[in-house]
């Protein structure tokens, strides 16, 4: 297994197989950890950064937590490969663009990614399709335990795990789900959703996290505080109080649209979207996200029956700029990508 | 033959069979005539208006110039029927909305329409598909001669035929062509076209004449002055000097688009247009005009091969508001029309 193989396969989280996958695309948990006796990354000397990367890489690779995975040295990786890993949600933009030694260990099915020398020394992530937060937490705790056999985490008796950013101090746990909320967008109820998230101290953000816009009705919902709560409390509040409300709210909006007086207006949008995806000769990312989002809604509502949900999910990823270039094995400008994107979409959608 | 049959047939001018029909949809010539010894319409008393309508109707019907046609008493006609005749270019908006006795005689193939009590006592029109101005002028002169056997036209030795509006005095002849100029629109060269028309004392207007906007890249080009020139001069200037330039200019622009670096951009527009027309569940008139215009271009460029040009031409007419309602035999609001329009377009385009 190596980096170049990634574009040939679908990440586990795109399989649209998990629970509540109509609304919850994927579940993600992340732990932030730092080595005791070493400064945070931003305070490290270059030689300490190099030492950290070598030591952590060695232990992660030796620890067997990656299964049949591989390690990517991001300092040596090409910009296009780094961008591809960002698009696949396997590394952060921060890690992609950093200037010091750094890397990421990725399991073969891409459910596990361990970033070395991100803002914290280690950031471990489990990413799974649908609503699988409990399983993801179990899995990340096993990884944390395995690494703790080898490494000594910076831990404070009163505060908990110490992290570079205060918002991560405590459990170091961030949980998030990627939500598809097209009906709430269409019915103009997203504002309410944003208010509700704020009231529950949750963050609702665009597809690629902080500071990115919400593309094609996709949102990341995550907890904001990790201090003063146990893992158990954080997970329970998130999965039992907040999330079911969002899912139900979106499903009600879909039902109202699909069976109410605006039914024809909705069908019009859905059938136009699939027609454009199948016919356009040029398409930019924004339009693609907008149209695929409507098609995803159409598949979930049973309006479109000849395209599997997994194909739609995969297209979101395959048509991102870096994926497109890696998949077709040539560098392209925006105009060339728009043409290649349209062609790829057409081909994939006509295969079914 | 009667009014209700009109929606079941395609007007001759939609057949896309005449010369230069890629650019020239139709050719129209019109003569304005007034009876000697009677005031212009706007100066008539109500009883004079009634007398005029009865006398003119009688002579037109008896004259045999209508072939196998029929006369429509517009005072008795329903608003929807009057609107339908406007959409078919058989009467003017002015005549449709006037409040006094008036009517129109229409030949079975709709090439001839004689409006009674328009701005002038009689306005005779010949409308034919493609570039057939010479034939149209021959035909209208025969009609004029036939009616002159029965009626005495207001004529002045120095000015020529007298008309209600000074711009028609002289020959009373207006010639016009409906042009489809999508490529000049796409290449941003329409401004030049408008300037050229003004320099040649020609008027370039929207689809339904004065004061209407140019819908879907369709324009009416017509002569502006009729005084001080013979019929022959007017026709020669128009058909030999002005028109060939427009046709050539549009054809060059099409060629540049279809075979130049913007080729993919053009294909993108064309294939999106046909896809939307075949898939939308709601469509308003403006969008329909825009999309059908692109499809018409696509058919003419050989990009779309499974739809005859006549089908495209007919759809422009059949999907106009009044036609839609007469064809489906029910009154509809804008929203209902948008749904019915989308359905009708889809059906017509899938028949091929």
TrEMBL record, chains A, B:
Residues 23-253 form the Phosphagen kinase C-terminal domain. Keywords: ATP-binding, Kinase, Nucleotide-binding, Transferase. GO terms for molecular function: ATP binding; creatine kinase activity. The keyword Nucleus does not apply. The keyword ATP-binding applies. GO terms for biological process: phosphocreatine biosynthetic process. One of its GO terms (cellular component) is extracellular space. NCBIfam families: PRK01059.1-4. This is Phosphagen kinase C-terminal domain-containing protein. It comes from marine sediment metagenome.
């Amino acid at each position: 297994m190596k980096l170049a193989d990634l574009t040939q396969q679908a990440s586990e989280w795109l399989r649209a197989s998990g629970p509540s996958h109509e609304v919850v695309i994927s579940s993600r948990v992340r732990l932030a950890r730092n080595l005791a006796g070493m400064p945070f990354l931003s305070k490290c000397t270059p030689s300490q950064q190099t030492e950290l990367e070598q030591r952590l890489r060695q232990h992660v690779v030796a620890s067997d937590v990656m299964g049949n995975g591989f390690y990517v040295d991001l300092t040596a990786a090409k910009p296009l490969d780094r961008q591809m890993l960002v698009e696949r949600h396997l590394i952060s933009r921060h890690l992609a663009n950093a200037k010091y030694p750094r890397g990421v260990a990725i399991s073969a099915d891409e459910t596990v990614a361990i970033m070395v020398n991100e803002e914290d020394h280690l950031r471990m992530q489990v990413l799974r399709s649908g609503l699988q937060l409990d399983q993801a937490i179990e899995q990340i705790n096993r990884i944390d335990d395995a690494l703790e056999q080898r490494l000594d985490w910076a831990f404070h008796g009163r505060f908990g795990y110490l992290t570079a950013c205060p918002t991560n101090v405590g459990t170091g746990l961030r949980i998030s789900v990627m939500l598809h909320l097209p009906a709430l967008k269409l019915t103009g109820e997203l504002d309410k959703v944003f208010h509700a998230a704020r009231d529950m101290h949750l963050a609702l953000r665009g597809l690629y996290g902080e500071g990115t816009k919400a593309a094609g009705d996709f949102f990341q919902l995550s907890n904001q505080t990790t201090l003063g709560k146990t893992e158990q409390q954080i997970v329970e509040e998130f999965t039992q109080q907040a999330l079911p409300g969002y899912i139900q709210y979106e499903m009600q909006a879909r039902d109202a649209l699909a069976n109410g007086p605006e039914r024809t207006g909705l069908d019009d949008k859905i059938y136009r979207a699939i027609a454009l995806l199948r016919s356009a000769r040029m398409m930019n990312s924004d339009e693609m996200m907008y149209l695929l989002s409507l098609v995803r809604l159409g598949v979930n509502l049973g309006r479109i029956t000849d395209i599997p949900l997994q194909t739609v999910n995969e297209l979101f990823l395959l048509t991102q700029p870096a994926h497109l270039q890696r998949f077709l094995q040539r560098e392209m400008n925006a105009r060339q990508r728009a043409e290649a994107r349209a062609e790829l979409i057409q081909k994939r959608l006509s295969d079914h």
